[in-house]
Design a protein that fits this description.
Oligomer: single chain
Radius of gyration: 27 Å
CATH class of the largest domain: Mainly Beta
Strand content: 15-25%
Shape: elongated
CATH architecture of the largest domain: Roll
Number of domains: 2
Amino acid sequence: MPGRVFEKIERFLKLRELYLIVLLAAATYGAWATNILSSHYCLPLWQLLLLAACPLAVYLTARLFYLKKKRRFNRGDAVSVIGESNKYIVIDYMVWRPCHAICKVMDEPRAYGVNEKYLIPYKEPLTYQAMVAWRHDVPKGPGVKHVTIKQL
């Protein structure tokens, strides 16, 4: 029974996104254990630095969760970069840059880190039959002023 509990804790800690939370919890426990403001009024320099860094750590943690919430794509989504026709698959997101997706081309072993603002949902290219259907819908003749192309 205790082994199963430790396995669950280990699986929980293996998540990369939770490392920062565990680190902040350890820093909070360390600050509480040293009794920063209750036992000493004269603080050593390292405690002042830790006290000054706490708001920054809280801000960065809140920003991390906010940017994770704003993500447009999930893992496994097919995307393409603006101006390219290659099909990329979103493998994961970078831990310290929550808006940077790690994308992989289907047939290549390499992966690329791309900012999410340059990604769009992947659309299948038109087949040859659709291109032929486009050309047949265009009326021909010298008197045609407005051409409407109907997409399949």
